[in-house]
Amino acid sequence: MTTSTPATEPETVRSQRRRAVVASTVGTAIEWYDFFLYGTAAALVFPQLFFPESSTYVGVLAAFGTQFVGFAARPIGAAIFGHFGDRVGRKSTLVITLMLMGVSTFLIGLLPTYASIGIAAPVLLVLLRIIQGIGVGGEWGGSVLLSMEWGSKKRRGLMASWPQLGVPVGLLASTAMVQLMSSASGDGFESWGWRVPFLASFVLIGIGMYVRLRVLESPAFQEVKEEREVVKMPVLRVLRDQPREVITSAFVRLSEQAPFYLFITFVLTYGTEKVGLSKEELLNDTLIAAAVGLVSVPLWGYLSDIIGRRLTYGIGIACVGAFAFPYFAMLNTGSSGLVMAAIVLSLFFHDIQYGPQAALIAESFGANVRYSGAGLGYQLASVIAGGPAPLIAAAILESTDSSIGISWYMVGCCVLAMAALILMPRGTAEPGTALEEPVKSGAEKAEA
């Protein structure tokens, strides 16, 4: 006689669904707080503290270069934790990624500067940034899947969008902390004030661990285990059988991730040095834009369940591409109202893509390789989009002394992303497709 498990009871399912959403969203918000905090510091203080002997331009490039190594490490994290996430489970890997991010961020807050230990300072900064990258690389896939796989199959766009809220929440929290410490420490911000937001990460680890340890493993992975469909080498399997899904998942993010890091990090350098705006004004505008994201990200995830993932995402690509030139034109006016509008609109258009993006990518893969496939596709974009974007923008600005080339760079990213969206194979749980049919690899189809 088969006895039902507590997870099959409706009230327990609803309770676990809420816990999964909270655990995924809170944990992801903490991880993105750590990651964005570095980007803000790289734009505002790291050039002077860790690369003081460089010119202003070289110092900015060096600071953004250390930021890039974190992006380069993200696919490594996706591969490592994707392997264990598809073999051991989503929950256990998420505990480890949270610890990696939190500890490395805390240690950055304790790091001596170049003035104290010389070249060892930027070397240690790079090493800690790599650990951050590995942690966040493994984080995204697990948090999205834990929420999505506990949710209703007809609401995967909405359920997968909740962990995406970690981005605006993390951006809001990190920017607010920097703004708070900048005001509180005054002239002491460069000497000690910048460290406090990094050290605060230690407290956030405890909160994240508490909520994550209370949620059960996702039903989809439990089913994979019960049916003995766990893949021995999931990363190799997904690269062998679904390379198109992985590659298009990476390129479809070009229009979202590359502009995003121009909107939140490069804008701080561009606004202060090129336009003459105050960092306080830019940080305040970013706070407003991040707050809007608390509504717009789940809104677009929800709408993608109704009108379709691809249509929603395509609208977002078109909006970012069309806004590339007006964005810098509004910044260049130096008008407080127009600058705020530019920053808020830039992240709103970004959210049209970011809301449905998690489900769009995750639905391309079966549950037994989903952590590996979705994580790799998502994080490979870090190498071609998010990581190099501030470096490319800084180089264009230095060589042309104009934002026009940067706008064209954004448009190019949108064109490539639209092509990837068209070529991307359809997932199995998008609106209008069969919800229960598993994704099969080429080899599995041949065997069938």
Automatic annotation (TrEMBL):
GO cellular-component term (any): plasma membrane
Annotated GO MF terms: symporter activity
Cross-referenced InterPro entries, in alphabetical order?
Answer: MFS, MFS_dom, MFS_trans_sf, Sugar_transporter_CS
To which species is this protein native?
Streptomyces bathyalis
The UniProt record lists the keyword Cytoplasm = no
* Protein name, UniProt field: Putative proline/betaine transporter
User: Would you identify the family this protein belongs to, as annotated?
Assistant: Belongs to the major facilitator superfamily. Metabolite:H+ Symporter (MHS) family (TC 2.A.1.6) family.
Which PROSITE patterns does the entry mention? MFS (PS50850), SUGAR_TRANSPORT_2 (PS00217)
- Entry annotated with the keyword Cell cycle: no
Indicate the transmembrane segments per the record: 21-46, 58-81, 93-111, 117-137, 158-180, 192-211, 250-270, 282-303, 310-329, 376-397, 403-423
Q: Where in the cell is it found?
A: Cell membrane
Q: Which UniProt keywords apply?
A: Cell membrane, Membrane, Symport, Transmembrane, Transmembrane helix, Transport
Query: What is the recorded membrane topology of this protein?
Result: Multi-pass membrane protein
Q: Which residues form the Major facilitator superfamily (MFS) profile domain?
A: 20-429
